[in-house]
């Protein structure tokens, strides 16, 4: 095809003559191959039946945002030639211990129904799902000979027996990702099997697991896998990995391990926990840094060095450090550091930070200088008694009004952090945002309704620790036409969740989790109710109907 390639969203107009009938089949397949965004794919598939069929046959990857939103059989019928599948299970709150282990999200039906029929499948990513050894066996029997990527991300219920089977059978595996999985450790033989049987592995990640491994097996892996570029491991004495590190000539990324308190390498033990000054010294030597992930011990001073040095920075993630007053004294991130980064690192696309203090001015600076932001997340910690500048109404308005590329937004504050006016601003200026997490925002039901009326494109919403009534939540859901999923914890719930039925509609599942009776009278030290005392609600669109595996403590709501 000569000339300029049409923009994806104009495909239907550019190629719709004769309903696409005038365009050769091969040409349409080639054009569809350049359309990667699933929303563009979806729009193109609606042009005519022919385009719908070509999309079905040429779609290589699908992400199922929630495992109960569709049945495996429907997915197979729609996309029979998938090469890659990502599947998400439990709500994100599971990462913070807010979702019981027996909640559901079982991988069994998906693997049983898809592993064999999807003959082109060579990559699978399961996130926050319950995966058993038998589930892994089903996958390996069907796809082990051609599986190249296996990501079990924050999954649970399987053991190292499953890993040993993977290591023996999946000899084409290039990526094995197990980060933050809960794995029953029955021995380290799995890693030895992997080292012996696999010569093409590129990425191995079992970071933040309890797996114990032999350093000699890692060294053997390095000898046999010349392609190994990335290794992230569980706790292991780094002094035992000298042989591995000397052998891994191609290694570009390494994480995990620690220095023990005994032996000749004791002198390095305290340097593995960087201070604010350590961060400053290291970062000052990294002018080409693109991604920075640190803990908040980096402090405002460290972020000022980042702002002066790292002009090409694209992603900044500042995790919460230990709840240690000493660390707060030497580090801690506030509006000072965020403002410096906003002014100095204008190519930023992603900011996620735990902060001790924040002001409207800092948010305005981010909105003024960081025009490329597509993902912004702030959590205001509760360690500091007084916050400089609340509510943050004007700051959030400036940020959202100027950062028009934002697609994901999280704003978790403290009581009083955002008034009803500020909540209305979020709705008014978040027209392009598709995912949002809000905590401790608003003052009344009116603020929630004003917010909802502006969220025309919001697809996924999570709310925590808010003052809204159950009835207001239901009314708000009806005001958001694109909403597909909402999870709420900590609101003014009715005893039975019946007010939630106001949001009932076809294909809309409502699940209510009342507080655990045995925990009703438990209180935290400050007199506030414990988190596990608070009711939860999950509501979502589903083509699969009510799920069959609800635990007994979960109440499914539907009109009589």
UniProtKB/TrEMBL annotation:
Coiled coil (UniProt feature): none
List, for all copies, the residue spans of the domain called COI1 F-box: 22-61
Q: Where is the Transport inhibitor response domain?
A: 80-126
Q: Where does the chain cross the membrane?
A: none
Output the superkingdom of the source species.
Eukaryota
UniProt-listed InterPro entries: COI1_F-box, F-box-like_dom_sf, LRR_dom_sf, Transp_inhibit
* Classification via Gene3D superfamilies: 1.20.1280.50, Ribonuclease Inhibitor (3.80.10.10)
Protein's name according to its UniProt entry: Coronatine-insensitive protein 1
């Amino acid at each position: 095809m000569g000339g300029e390639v049409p923009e994806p969203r104009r495909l239907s107009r550019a190629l719709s003559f004769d309903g696409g009938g005038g365009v050769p089949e091969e040409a349409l397949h080639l054009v569809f191959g350049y359309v990667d965004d699933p929303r563009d794919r979806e729009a193109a598939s609606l042009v005519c039946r022919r385009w719908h069929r070509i999309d079905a046959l040429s779609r290589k990857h699908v992400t199922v945002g929630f495992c109960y939103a569709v049945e495996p059989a429907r997915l197979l019928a729609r996309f029979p030639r998938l090469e890659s599948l990502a599947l998400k299970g439990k709500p994100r709150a599971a990462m913070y211990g807010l979702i019981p282990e027996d909640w559901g999200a079982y991988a069994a039906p998906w693997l049983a129904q898809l592993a064999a029929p999807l003959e082109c499948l060579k990559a699978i990513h399961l996130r926050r799902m319950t995966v058993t050894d038998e589930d892994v066996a089903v996958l390996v029997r069907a796809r082990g000979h051609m599986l190249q990527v296996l990501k079990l991300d924050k999954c649970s219920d399987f053991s190292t027996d499953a890993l040993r089977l993977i290591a023996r059978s999946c000899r084409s595996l290039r990526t094995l990702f197990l980060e933050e999985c809960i794995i029953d450790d029955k021995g380290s033989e799995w890693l030895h099997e992997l080292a012996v049987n696999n010569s093409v592995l590129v990425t191995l990640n079992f970071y933040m697991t309890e797996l114990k491994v032999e350093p000699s097996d890692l060294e053997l892996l390095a000898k046999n896998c010349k392609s190994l570029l990335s290794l992230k491991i569980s706790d292991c004495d780094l002094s035992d990995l000298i042989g591995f590190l000397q052998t891994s000539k191609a290694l570009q990324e390494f994480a995990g391990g620690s220095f023990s308190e005994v032996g000749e390498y004791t002198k390095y033990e305290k340097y593995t926990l960087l201070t604010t000054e350590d961060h400053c010294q290291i970062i000052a030597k990294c002018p080409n840094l693109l991604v920075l992930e640190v803990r908040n011990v980096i402090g405002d001073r460290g972020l000022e060095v980042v702002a002066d040095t790292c002009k090409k920075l694209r992603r900044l993630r500042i995790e919460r450090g230990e709840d240690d007053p000493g660390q707060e004294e030497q580090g801690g991130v506030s509006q000072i550091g965020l403002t410096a980064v906003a002014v100095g690192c204008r190519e930023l696309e992603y900011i996620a930070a735990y902060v001790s203090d924040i002001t409207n001015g800092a948010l305005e600076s981010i909105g003024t200088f960081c025009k490329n932001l597509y993902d912004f997340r702030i959590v205001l910690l509760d360690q500091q008694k007084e916050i400089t500048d609340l509510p943050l109404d004007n700051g959030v308005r400036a940020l959202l009004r100027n950062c028009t590329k934002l697609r994901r937004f999280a704003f978790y504050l403290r009581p009083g952090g955002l008034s009803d006016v500020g909540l209305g601003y979020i709705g008014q200026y978040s027209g392009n945002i598709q995912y949002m997490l809000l905590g401790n925002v608003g003052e009344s039901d009116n603020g929630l309704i004003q917010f909802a009326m502006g969220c025309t494109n919001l697809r996924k919403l999570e709310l925590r620790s808010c003052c809204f009534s159950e009835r207001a939540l239901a009314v708000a859901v009806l005001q958001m036409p694109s909403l597909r999923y909402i999870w709420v914890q900590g609101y003014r719930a009715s005893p039975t969740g019946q007010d939630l039925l106001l949001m009932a509609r076809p294909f809309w599942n409502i699940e209510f989790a009342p507080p655990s009776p045995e925990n009703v009278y438990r209180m935290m030290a400050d007199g506030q109710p414990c988190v596990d005392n608070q009711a939860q609600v999950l509501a979502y669109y589903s083509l699969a109907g009510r799920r069959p595996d609800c635990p007994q403590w979960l109440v499914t709501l539907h009109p009589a």
